[in-house]
UniProtKB/TrEMBL annotation:
It comes from the Bacteria. It comes from Polaribacter haliotis. InterPro entries: Spore_coat_CotH_CotH2/3/7. This is CotH kinase family protein. It holds the Pfam family CotH.
Amino acid sequence: MKPLLFNICLLITVCFNTSLLAQELVAEKGSFGVDTKNKIIVWHITDLDAIKTANKNGNTIKFNKNYKLKETTIQSLSYKNSSVVSNEENYKLYITKLPLVHLTVDTSKMSNVFKLPFYFTFFNDKNYIKSTGGVRYRGNLSLSFPKKSFDLEFWKDSITRVQKDIKFANLRSDDDWILDGLFNEPLRLRSFVATNLWNEIHKPYYLKKEPKAKSTFRVKFVELFQNNTYYGIYQLSESVDRKQLKLKKKEKNIIKGELFKANSYKGGPDFTKSPEKYDDKTIFWNGWATRYPSDINEFSWKNLAEFSNLVVHGSDEDFVKNIENKFQLSNAIDYYLFVNLLKTTDNLGKNYYLGKYDKNEPYFFIPWDLDGSFGVVIDGLTTLETDGVLQNGLLKRLIETNPNGYKEKVKKRWTELRAKEFSNEALFSNINKIYNRFTDEKIYEREQLVWKNKLNETSNEDHYKFLEKWLTERLIYLDNQFNKL
């Protein structure tokens, strides 16, 4: 072949191959999920404009295979609209800014008792995390839901099962995590809003001593694929433990920090019963479960039993005289107002933790499991009933005995919160931010493609209007109640 002809052919070949390459966009490993059952692809992209700039004329995207955009190009990709792509069959392609999680596990052997080995990936803004670990179902009533929630524990490997800490975005570094399916809450936002609200209004009283202490867990929305099937929106949650709260560790035989979970309705967590006897060899007592110290033969119920006895059986005189040494009253006030704002009926005799920072320090409340709130009860049913003041034995007695002007402090704190974090404007701003995003970015749309149930037979708009009406009326009722104190 003559040199000139050879060069021309070479130039044509290079240009042709370059053109082909420019039309194929390759998705990063871990950034997407392909659901062959529901014909859905979800692809995490943080900067969609950069993708469009680099692929101006392309119409093919490589996920597990090459998929061609039908009747459109990469330039038309949007967070606010789905696209149709094809590889023999048509799929709906959604672009998401939410982190993408994959769980791979043998679900035929899954239970809420033992953790099975699983493989896990997490992708967020080019941060790609891979790990093995153990997973089990979590919850009580939620075990009956088709969309399961999960307890995760990360391991260095599946043989030794040595625990491994993983850090997700702005959350902590730890080996224990929760993925909450939020199935009983139609708008999938109540728990998230409530959890962030508590973190906003309440800080640990010992924060100067422990600057990294948190007042409860923190949360982040993700989208989940389980065994390559799209499972929708999940709430990734930290755990409540000694590490999160920065409680003082036990020193030799001296118990310093304490942590108990309100585990069941047996009279202890709602402060209506306080038996004299307890057994330091068992993890359970009077509806409580000890969480720290938690090693065998380290359980100690003495302090909690004495406190419970003061609340349940102590005279008014003893209660007023000693309660401020036994319980952190600014925490009691915030928790009282918080659970009443949300009307979380399941968070006064269960679904909370009781902590103690150090020896001879007072106890305090830590909220937990906040999905049954804002007019939704724990089983997922909605109720427009907005009246009634929630309390348990402790909170009721504080109001009745009024130690050191407690009622006036409650009233003052309510007024402060209503001017800021509990104002209609602030509350609806937090709710609307999520609701509008989930609507505009078609997150609700793809969630409801895979989860059809009694909760989403009603439109999202109707669910939102219910929440709006419920919260507005609840605030009017509580303003009247607390201003009368």
